[in-house]
Amino acid sequence: MVIDGLCDLWTSWGLLGVLVAAGCCLLVAWIMRRPPNFPPGPRGWPLFGVSKAGQLAVTEWIPKYGDIIGYYRGPVRVVSLGSYDVIREAFVKNAEHFSSRPRPLNPTLATYKTKGVVQEPYGTTWKEHRKFTLMSLRDFGVGKRSLEGKILEETRALSDEILKKENQGFCISNMMQVTVSNVICSIVFGSRYEYDDPKFIRLIEAIDHFFSIPRSGSALLPSLIPILRYIPAVNRNFLKLREVEAYIGTHILEQIQEHEATFDPNDIRDLIDAFLLEKRRRQEDENTTFTEQQNILVVMDLFLAGTETTSTTLRWALLYMILHPDMQEKVQQEIDSVIGQSQDPSMAHRTQMPYTEATLTEVSRLASIAPLSVPHAASNDVTFRGYHIPKGTVVQANLWAVHHDPQLWPDPHRFDPARFLDDAGKFVKRDEVIPFSIGRRVCLGEQLARMELFLFFTSLLQRFSFKLPEGAPVPSEEGVFGATHSPVPFKLVAVARD
């Protein structure tokens, strides 16, 4: 029995020794695999890397490591750029090295020949489809007065919905998302939805769910380490994300199939029709990238990029107006002076409204709804500011750090539109405000988003004053971080203006 006990003890200690030795080997391998002259940064855990690498954590590292930080997220090498100067130098001056995309987190998407526009690596396919998409957006009104009419149509529909809640406390989130989504629907699908359409409501809920799922730290690990996808305790968000993406993709496929059934090459109704026309033109080319799968992905890119980000920015704008009624009044005074009550806002009014422009710019800066933007990737080995960055390294722009840099913005967490006004009250553009990123991969929906933000914001404040419900607690200005930075749900009261 004593011998058996000693054997058990030896076995236990032997097993422990093996585990310790294996751990040491992993640790050594982890340290040794960090490329020479790689940017400094936290080491993280072997295999798993840095557990917390969201925008707040990465920004907190800057005083210690500088504005070029290297670390691992799971097995993925990441370089974070934390100042405007380094982001501009990388994405503009060294665009040929830093304009690609990393391998998609969705393992199914990673196997596709093409990956839409947003996730497509830098190269011929990306250039071709970005050019096609931008031309199609222009053809269907982006940047033109024809689209202004569609946006204003949605502002009137939104105003009608708000009037049903007049003088009542309500949450405007769903209304706002439906309204903004209808604009992109008119461009992509050629039609709009009613607010109570059950199919549309489910689609909006899916999009909202897509953006609320965390994308940092442990939530990403199953995407980066395949074996973790089979562990229920850690794969929950991964499975939710795949489920939501599949639902949105199915909805888009149904739209494409309906368009194919009624397609007329002499009557191009929307972006899906434009894609189908280009697909038919190239059907003899065996290497064509204008496929049904690519059609789904391009439409999904536009739908996701063109809904949540704009509606979230508008919700932040209304929150700041509620919290700063004096600033809301200044915006309304400018609206009354320049536009009045007898006509709709127009993009032509924008240059005459410096305070409104400053207010929307400050919303974009302070809210920073895409705090880490869409990640780039190094397309080749490159030396950047003395550091070695290997090919394939994920390169992220920390827009949160730029927009909250106290050296650029005194008291950076305070809402203050006057930052963008000179002594004469004229609007002063600041290059350091980059909510759509910069360089070759700048958001392709930037022009549409700027139109929507100005027209929706001015239309709402032309017709309503917004305030907190009586006795309601003051909403927090600290948002919730998912794929975007969203305000905590809040209620408001809309009072129709005389």
TrEMBL record:
The UniProt entry's GO CC annotations, sorted and at most eight, read: cytoplasm; endoplasmic reticulum membrane; mitochondrial inner membrane
Q: Which cofactor does it need?
A: heme
Q: Which Pfam families match?
A: p450 (PF00067)
Q: Which SUPFAM superfamilies match?
A: Cytochrome P450 (SSF48264)
- InterPro entries from the entry? Cyt_P450 (IPR001128), Cyt_P450_CS (IPR017972), Cyt_P450_E_grp-I (IPR002401), Cyt_P450_sf (IPR036396), Cytochrome_P450_fam2 (IPR050182)
Q: Where are the transmembrane segments?
A: 12-32
Localization, per the record, is:
Endoplasmic reticulum membrane; Microsome membrane; Mitochondrion inner membrane
- Out of the domains of life, which is the source? Eukaryota
Gene3D superfamilies linked to this entry: Cytochrome P450
Positions bound to heme: 443
The UniProt similarity line reads:
Belongs to the cytochrome P450 family.
Q: What is the documented function of this protein?
A: A cytochrome P450 monooxygenase involved in the metabolism of arachidonic acid and its conjugates. Mechanistically, uses molecular oxygen inserting one oxygen atom into a substrate, and reducing the second into a water molecule, with two electrons provided by NADPH via cytochrome P450 reductase (CPR; NADPH-ferrihemoprotein reductase). Acts as an omega and omega-1 hydroxylase for arachidonic acid and possibly for other long chain fatty acids. May modulate the arachidonic acid signaling pathway and play a role in other fatty acid signaling processes.
**Name the UniProt record assigns to this protein:** Cytochrome P450 2U1
| Organism expressing this protein natively | Branchiostoma floridae
